[in-house]
């Protein structure tokens, strides 16, 4: 295992639902990585809660994780907004994200007269919010700022809904928005560089259940890809995506055995 770094997706790899309940073997997997001194970070495109709240919930669920080992786009978002001198935004997103942005000095309003439209996961997205968002971009030249470019999200009941990236692309299409949409989440180079900061190793692996959002982009960056079938996609989706990851596993136990990590199962 010398020289390897693991970037581990949260949803679909370590947790199995939106309540952040750990998947079998997740606790043991992280414990083994720590005990062997293998550098890793848990990476997530979760845009429903600030990073500190997610880590707190994971600990309450029995999944020990230090906040410095957890990276999400919300860690990058305030800095990105400040780099564009954006101080007033309309948010498509959940209440905890609104509080987080306001704590970071960003004014969050329900008005189309804003400098930016921040697009995160929003379970209360309705016509009123969409009307304001389209008007903000079309009438006030607001920037469209997706927290990530996630296409699709699996809900706890097995059904799916559009990710932040899909909603942002809809706004872009509706308003004939000319700019390229930024990607503050994985696997953009900026996000990966942030996640790898301070870690030493020669071979980086991204472990994820998401072929389209994560693994395709990671491979383009020269990162080794590990596909887990424990999340939203089955092996059949690899054929539809015409994508061949470096490795594929059906459980964390299989992954640990492959890399010669002592399994506590």
UniProtKB/TrEMBL annotation:
Keyword Zinc-finger among record annotations: no
GO molecular function per UniProt: phosphatase activity
Pfam families for this protein: Hydrolase_6, Hydrolase_like
SUPFAM superfamilies: HAD-like
Keyword set includes Hydrolase: yes
Keywords per UniProt: Hydrolase
Any one GO CC term of the record: cytoplasm
NCBIfam families, alphabetized: HAD-SF-IIA (TIGR01460)
The name this protein goes by in its record: Hydrolase
Lineage, top ranks: Bacteria, Pseudomonadati, Aquificota, Aquificia, Aquificales
């Amino acid at each position: 295992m010398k020289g390897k770094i693991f970037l581990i997706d949260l949803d679909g790899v370590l947790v199995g639902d939106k309540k952040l309940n750990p998947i079998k073997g997740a606790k043991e997997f992280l414990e083994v990585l720590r005990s062997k001194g293998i550098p890793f970070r848990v990476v997530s495109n979760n845009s429903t809660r600030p990073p500190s709240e997610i880590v707190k919930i994971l600990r309450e669920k029995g999944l020990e994780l230090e906040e410095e080992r957890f990276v999400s786009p919300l860690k990058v978002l305030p800095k990105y907004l400040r780099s564009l001198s954006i101080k007033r935004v309309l948010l498509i997103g959940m209440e905890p994200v609104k509080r987080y942005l306001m704590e970071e000095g960003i004014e969050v309003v329900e008005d189309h007269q804003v400098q930016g439209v921040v697009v995160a996961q929003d379970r209360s997205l309705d016509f009123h919010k969409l009307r304001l968002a389209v008007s903000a971009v079309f009438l006030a030249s607001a920037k469209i700022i997706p927290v990530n470019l996630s296409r699709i999200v699996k809900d706890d009941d097995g059904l799916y809904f559009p990710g932040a990236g899909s909603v942002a692309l809809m706004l872009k299409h509706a308003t004939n928005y000319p700019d390229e949409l930024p990607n503050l989440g994985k696997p953009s180079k900026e996000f990966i560089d942030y996640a790898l900061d301070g870690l030493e190793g020669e071979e980086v692996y991204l472990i994820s259940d998401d072929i389209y959002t994560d693994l395709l982009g990671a491979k383009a960056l020269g990162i080794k890809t590990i596909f887990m079938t424990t999340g939203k996609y089955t092996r059949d989706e690899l054929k539809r995506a015409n994508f061949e990851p470096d490795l594929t596993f059906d459980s964390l136990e299989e992954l640990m055995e492959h890399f010669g990590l002592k399994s506590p199962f």
